[in-house]
Amino acid sequence: MYQSIMVPVDLAHLDALEKPLTVAADMARHYNAQLNYVGVTTSQPSSVARTPEEYEQKLKAFAKEHAPDNGHLPAARVYNSHDPVADLDDILLKAIDDVGADLVVMGTHLPHHIDAVMPANGSKVASHSNVSVFLVRP
Predict the structure, then answer these.
(1) How far, CA to CA in Å, does 13 sit from each of 17, 30, 39, 62, 69?
(2) Fewest beta carbons within 10 Å, which of 47, 70, 90, 124?
(3) What is the pLDDT of residue 122?
């Protein structure tokens, strides 16, 4: 049913992504689908990486370590942004097309009242793309 699954990954918050990463790997295994890890970083040094190239190396190493046992090596793609927080939704929508995803598995946060004014990333991705989006709560 699904051939390409995309998972946004923030290397700075891997502990919060345990459930969505597990769900994505399980679904990739079940559907024998390609798993695509997508990261967004900035040119400015961060606690994760000093450069976008270093971030990409780390994401590729992460992808290799978290390969589902379905015979497909996961892909890793990094997008550079001057403001990853502001640009995240648009970058994820572009990434869906770039990787040819037909399913996105995203971690989310517990709902807050502010979500009525500023919706979470997952709801924008779901409402502005033509692919299935599976939101996984922590």
Answers:
(1) 7, 26, 12, 13, 24
(2) 47
(3) 72
